[in-house]
């Protein structure tokens, strides 16, 4: 099978990393991948062993010529189907290109951001199938008017073995700029409002009082980096709250965290949660979007209402004071990843949708 994948994201994390996992799995099964993505993006270089990569200009929703550029690719390479992996213009322009070429179109939806019903009614007419990466996203789509017979589920996945390393504590602490003996809490997310970093900051003061050795590390980048850093300095938390930026050494760092916190206000599923569980790290997260599918309350972590600093503080305090419970939750998280979130399961779920159309 020959599949044209379209990914408009410019950074190799989140959805783009899932695309890379899918390309690798499809290539291993003998399928041919074509990848259209922004010219020079990190995904382009990483995908070269598994796909014929075609870098092209992609300027987002305000780029109507993207449909014509994709139409030319379709005409030149004659794929059996088109798989659109992002919004950022690719969902609409890729859908138009597929319709013009008469090729089946699949769109994967990775976020649970609400869309107006009129937009859902128009946009998803362009797609033969819509894949949600979580049941939570599926419920949002159907609630906004997507016909249920178009919807399919293919959960995001993680390479479990990449994160199942023993902790090199002193090395990880040196990389993060914290003390080796610190009680280490991490947040792995883009620095954007809906990820809820401010909610965690609101919860911190009594936790710092109870645990003087507590260090909180924000792993990620985004437009809120400046405001978050200013608040940390204003509160006098420099050295206790660390903005470590985007990291490509996450597999080595993650096993050394005592707890991962994900206070998101909205979330499709949360790949960072799958990574944390693969590393055997317990989680405190919001009961938002698809998060309860990745974090099972009482199994591999604790869930709290989104946007509630008091509830978040209580859950964090429970686990910080109970190392044995953290260990049990971490072990259960590894088992959950192997059981339900393997890359093989994700690839086969996507292939099942392809076979419906080809």
TrEMBL record:
SUPFAM superfamilies, sorted: UDP-Glycosyltransferase/glycogen phosphorylase
Pfam families: Glyco_transf_4 (PF13439), Glycos_transf_1 (PF00534)
Gene3D superfamilies: Glycogen Phosphorylase B
Any GO molecular function: hexosyltransferase activity
Domain Glycosyltransferase subfamily 4-like N-terminal: 14-161
Key word Hydrolase present: no
Lipoprotein listed as a keyword: no
Family annotation (InterPro entries): Glyco_trans_1, Glyco_trans_4-like_N, Glycosyltransferase_grp1
Keywords attached to this entry: Transferase
Protein's name in the database: Glycosyl transferase, group 1 family protein
Domain Glycosyl transferase family positions: 177-334
């Amino acid at each position: 099978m020959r599949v044209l994948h379209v990914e408009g994201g410019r950074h190799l994390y989140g959805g783009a990393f899932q695309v890379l996992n899918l390309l690798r799995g499809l290539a291993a099964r003998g399928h041919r991948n074509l990848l259209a993505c922004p010219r020079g993006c990190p995904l382009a270089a990483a995908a070269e062993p598994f796909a014929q990569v075609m870098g092209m200009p992609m300027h987002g929703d305000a780029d109507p010529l993207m449909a014509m550029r994709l139409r030319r690719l379709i005409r030149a390479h004659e794929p059996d189907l088109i798989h659109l992996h992002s919004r950022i213009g690719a969902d609409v322009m890729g859908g138009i290109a597929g319709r013009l070429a008469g090729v089946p179109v699949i769109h994967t939806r990775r976020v649970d951001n609400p869309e107006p019903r009129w937009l859902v009614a128009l946009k998803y007419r362009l797609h033969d199938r819509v894949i949600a990466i979580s049941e939570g996203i599926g419920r949002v789509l159907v609630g906004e008017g997507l016909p249920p017979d178009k919807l399919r589920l293919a959960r995001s996945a993680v390479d479990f073995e990449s994160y199942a390393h023993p902790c090199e504590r002193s090395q990880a602490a040196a990389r993060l700029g914290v003390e080796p003996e610190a009680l280490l809490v991490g947040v792995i997310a883009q620095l954007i409002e809906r990820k809820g970093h401010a909610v965690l900051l609101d919860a911190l003061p009594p936790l710092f009082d109870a645990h003087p050795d507590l260090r909180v590390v924000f792993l990620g980048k985004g437009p809120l980096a400046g405001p978050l850093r200013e608040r940390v300095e204003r509160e006098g938390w420099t050295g206790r709250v660390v903005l470590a930026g985007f990291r490509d050494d996450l597999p080595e760092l993650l096993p050394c965290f005592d707890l991962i916190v994900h206070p998101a206000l909205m979330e499709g599923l949360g790949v960072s949660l799958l990574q944390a569980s693969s590393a055997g790290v317990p989680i405190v997260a919001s009961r938002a979007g698809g998060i309860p599918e990745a974090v099972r309350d009482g199994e591999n972590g604790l869930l709290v209402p989104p946007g509630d600093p008091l509830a978040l503080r209580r859950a964090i305090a429970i686990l910080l004071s109970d190392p044995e419970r953290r260990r049990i939750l971490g072990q259960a998280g590894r088992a959950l990843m192997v059981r339900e979130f393997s890359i093989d399961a994700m690839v086969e779920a996507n292939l099942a949708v392809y076979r419906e159309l080809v």
